[in-house]
């Protein structure tokens, strides 16, 4: 079971602060939604906590080991990371792309050990891609591609999933399919930290919400406690009606 | 499309056949039996000289040059995730040619037959070192390409300057010979000098090929699945630079095989950059051996330069392949 912890984590680009003294903890069994307006510092926080971006202060650790000092492969075996930008350079087959999820175990497309091949099969099954396994990725729809990337992340069988806007630009059905896949992953013992812009989706699925505004984490807690009309006004500058986990945004303030 | 396992054995077989054909064909045709006997050290003295000292080293030089350019092109395309990348893009060929031209201009080549190849090698290494330094500092592939474009432009300008100021027409024609690319009159001695660099560069590229597959996902996700991006860049750039330096030292500047061969190979290996390295090397070597046979048997007054023929075949093929490509997700 993997645990990702940030303590007073700060990120700067030159003089500009991107993240200021962020504290959070994500572990197994949790579905944590990272919420905040554009430019709040969500992506930088994810990257810095994984050691992919240099922190200017504070500490991030994965299972009590400093993220910045973890070898890339060691980190990849513990945390599966799905970045916002997901370009595929070549029209590989779905199966080959998913096989790249086993990179940290020394595998490569076309050179999968028995264990790697099993993990790839399981990931394809979980994401419902068995029938598309030998299709070239440039023939897939956006929704299918999103599942391919998820399958790639699942194939690593890491304990923690960190995803940056995994459902952006997907139709509602595919959004729900992806969220269901994450939920199954958590039910199977994983933990997830996911950047989401669709607040109703986040409220429906997340067990906890981390709210970010202007480089800082302003709230962190169960959905029922942190999702309030006041917080919507404070963080997003929108008028919203909140009832339990249901949220309706009425307009900009 | 599934990877085609017959591809590499087929290319090896075709390459051997082509090298053998290169021993048969030429200004004086030799029958198969005489070539075979000469290859195994028998037959007439004249036959042995033609096969062992003229045709075989020349064919092997063409193959080695092509193989170096093919594997470098395939690796650079994987690294830069751009099917148009090749050693020329990073300024390696241009820089190698510049150094070669420089040694010609100052007549340094008269000192030793080794001056020219060594100069080409130094030029390639100077360019790759610059690129490698840039690769440490920057995260962006676009920046790397721009550095390469800068090196290319500078080398091209400096080369034009040297040609402008060439003291004698003889030096000028020497320079042009070098820039056009040719494997005429290459011996095992020259091949022996270039081969270690081509083999070392190729070995570096093969050792780091798994990371090229990872880069299919883009740099961000590739780091996410455990790729050490910086080391991958350095290894690929140095490997391609050293191999290309070896090829320029052997044959001068020969373009397009580094782009065309990986293009043809890619669909057969599931578009996986790692699996395209060896077949690309073999195919590019095969193409140059065949092109060089063409150069030798075409009844022209002056023998055509291999680089010219390679570009004449390669450029249209490249355009045809590029236009036939389907849009990919950028």
TrEMBL record, chain A:
**SMART domains reported in the protein's UniProt record:** AAA
Q: Does the keyword Plastid apply?
A: no
Q: Residue limits of the ABC transporter domain? A: 4-239
Molecular function GO labels:
ATP binding
Keywords carried by this UniProt record:
ATP-binding, Nucleotide-binding, Translocase, Transport
Q: Supply the InterPro entries for this chain.
A: AAA+_ATPase, ABC_transporter-like_ATP-bd, P-loop_NTPase
Is Lipid biosynthesis among this UniProt entry's keywords? Answer: no
Q: What does it do?
A: Part of the ABC transporter complex HmuTUV involved in hemin import. Responsible for energy coupling to the transport system.
Give the protein name, as stated in the record: ABC transporter ATP-binding protein
TrEMBL record, chain B:
Q: How does it sit in the membrane?
A: Multi-pass membrane protein
Q: Which residues cross the membrane?
A: 59-76, 88-108, 114-136, 143-167, 187-207, 237-265, 277-299, 306-323
Q: Which UniProt keywords apply?
A: Cell membrane, Membrane, Transmembrane, Transmembrane helix, Transport
For this protein, the record's SUPFAM superfamilies field holds:
ABC transporter involved in vitamin B12 uptake, BtuC
Organism superkingdom: Bacteria
Supply the PROSITE patterns for this chain: PROKAR_LIPOPROTEIN
Q: Where in the cell is it found?
A: Cell membrane
Q: Which family does it belong to?
A: Belongs to the binding-protein-dependent transport system permease family. FecCD subfamily.
Q: Per its UniProt record, what PANTHER family does this chain match?
A: ABC TRANSPORTER PERMEASE PROTEIN MJ0876-RELATED (PTHR30472:SF25), FERRIC ENTEROBACTIN TRANSPORT SYSTEM PERMEASE PROTEIN (PTHR30472)
> What's the protein called, per UniProt?
Iron ABC transporter permease
Taxonomic lineage per UniProt?
Bacteria, Pseudomonadati, Pseudomonadota, Alphaproteobacteria, Hyphomonadales
């Amino acid at each position: 079971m993997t645990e990702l912890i940030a303590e007073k984590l700060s990120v700067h680009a030159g003089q500009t602060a991107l993240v200021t003294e962020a504290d959070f903890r994500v572990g197994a069994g949790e579905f944590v939604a990272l919420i905040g307006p554009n430019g709040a510092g969500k992506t930088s926080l994810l990257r810095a906590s994984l050691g992919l971006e240099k922190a200017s202060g504070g500490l991030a650790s994965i299972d009590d080991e400093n993220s910045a000092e973890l070898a890339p492969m060691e980190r990849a075996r513990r945390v599966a990371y799905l970045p916002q930008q997901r370009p595929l350079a070549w029209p590989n087959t779905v199966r080959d792309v998913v096989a790249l999820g086993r990179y940290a175990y020394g595998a490569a497309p076309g050179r999968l050990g028995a264990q790697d091949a099993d993990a790839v099969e399981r990931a394809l099954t979980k994401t419902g891609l068995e029938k598309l396994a030998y299709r070239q990725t440039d023939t897939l729809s956006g929704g299918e591609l999103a599942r391919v990337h998820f399958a790639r992340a699942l194939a690593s069988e890491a304990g923690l999933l960190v995803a940056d806007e995994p459902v952006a630009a997907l139709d509602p059905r595919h959004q729900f399919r992806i969220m269901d896949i994450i939920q199954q992953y958590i039910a199977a013992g994983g933990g997830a930290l996911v950047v989401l812009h669709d607040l109703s989706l986040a409220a429906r699925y997340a067990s906890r919400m981390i709210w970010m505004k202007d480089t800082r984490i302003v709230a962190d807690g169960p959905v029922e406690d942190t999702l309030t009309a006041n917080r919507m006004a404070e963080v997003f500058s929108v008028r919203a009606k909140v009832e339990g986990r249901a949220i309706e945004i009425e307009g900009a303030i | 499309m599934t990877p085609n396992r017959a591809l590499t054995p087929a290319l090896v077989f075709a390459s051997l056949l082509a090298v053998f054909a290169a021993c048969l064909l030429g200004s004086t045709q030799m029958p198969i039996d005489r070539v075979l006997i000469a290859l195994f050290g028998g037959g007439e003295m004249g036959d042995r000289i033609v096969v062992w000292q003229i045709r075989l080293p020349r064919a092997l030089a063409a193959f080695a040059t092509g193989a170096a350019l093919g594997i470098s092109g395939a690796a650079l395309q994987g690294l830069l995730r751009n099917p148009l990348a090749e050693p020329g893009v990073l300024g390696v060929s241009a820089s190698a040619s510049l150094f070669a031209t420089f040694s010609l201009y100052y007549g340094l080549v008269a000192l030793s037959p080794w001056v020219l190849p060594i100069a080409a090698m130094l030029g390639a290494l100077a360019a790759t070192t610059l690129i490698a330094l840039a690769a440490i500092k920057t995260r962006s592939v676009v920046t790397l390409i721009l550095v390469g474009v800068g090196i290319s432009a500078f080398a091209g300008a400096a080369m034009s300057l040297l040609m402008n100021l060439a003291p004698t027409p003889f030096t000028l024609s020497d320079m042009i010979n070098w820039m056009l690319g040719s494997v005429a009159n290459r011996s095992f001695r020259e091949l022996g000098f270039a081969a270690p660099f081509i083999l070392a560069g190729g070995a570096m590229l093969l050792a780091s090929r798994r990371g090229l597959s990872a880069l299919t996902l883009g740099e961000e996700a590739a780091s996410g699945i455990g790729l050490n991006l910086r080391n991958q860049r350095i290894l690929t750039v140095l490997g391609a630079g050293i191999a290309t330096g070896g090829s320029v030292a052997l044959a001068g500047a020969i373009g397009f095989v580094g782009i065309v061969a990986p293009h043809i190979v890619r669909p057969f290996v599931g578009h996986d950059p790692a699996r395209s390295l060896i077949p690309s090397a073999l195919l590019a070597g095969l193409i140059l051996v065949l092109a060089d046979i063409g150069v030798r048997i075409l009844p022209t007054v002056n023998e055509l330069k291999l680089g010219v023929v390679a570009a004449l075949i390669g450029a249209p093929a490249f355009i045809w392949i590029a236009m036939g490509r389907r849009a990919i997700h950028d």
